[in-house]
Design a protein that fits this description.
Layout: E1 2-4, E2 11-13, E3 18-22, E4 25-29, H1 32-56, H2 62-75, H3 77-97, H4 104-119, H5 125-158
Antiparallel strand pairs: 1-2, 3-4
The chain binds zinc ion.
Zinc ion is lined by residues 5, 7-8, 10, 29-30, 34.
Protein name: Recombinase zinc beta ribbon domain-containing protein
Length: 159
């Protein structure tokens, strides 16, 4: 018997599908990984909305949800959440500097434009940190050897 995957819509054999029981009903997914990824994405979406409310104020204006969804379609809510968590202070300051906005829509557009402009270049802190350490080590190595060489030359010149 074939069942439809709740995640991607593919038809899959019920015997190999990953089954989750939600409110007494069987839901099927291609595999556990797909289900977990969707779950994380949904949780991220809720957190993104809450953080957005913190930054621009609670709203029912659908423009906000539309803008966030547009960004998530390209970058995922999971990445959007990480970006917001790391840039809360900066975004908050930018919004405060632009008060007053002509209306709520202008504020939402301003907020989503900041995200759109920056999220493309955003990398998680862990990755950036690793690169910094590597660069630092290389620079240190070069400095060390050149200093050593110079002092050796100086030493020869002295005698
Ligand atoms: Zn699927």
């Amino acid at each position: 018997m074939l069942v439809k995957c709740k995640g991607c819509g593919n038809k899959i054999d019920r015997d190999i599908a990953y089954k989750v029981i939600i409110k007494g009903k069987n839901k099927y997914y291609c595999n556990k990984q797909e289900y977990e990824a969707i779950k994380i994405e949904k949780e991220s979406k809720n957190k993104v909305i809450n953080l957005s409310f913190e930054l621009i104020g609670k709203t029912t204006n659908t423009a906000l949800f539309k803008e966030l969804q547009e960004i998530a379609n390209i970058h995922t809510y999971t990445k959007l959440l990480k970006y917001l968590e790391e840039n809360m202070v900066k975004i908050d300051a930018a919004i405060c500097n632009n008060i007053p906005f002509v209306n709520e829509y202008a504020k939402i557009r301003y907020y989503s434009t900041i995200i759109k402009n920056e999220i493309g270049d955003f990398k998680e802190k862990v990755e950036i940190h690793d690169t910094e350490i590597n660069d630092f080590e290389i620079i240190e190595e070069i400095k060390y050897s050149s200093t050593k060489k110079k002092s050796f030359d100086d030493l020869i010149n002295e005698y």
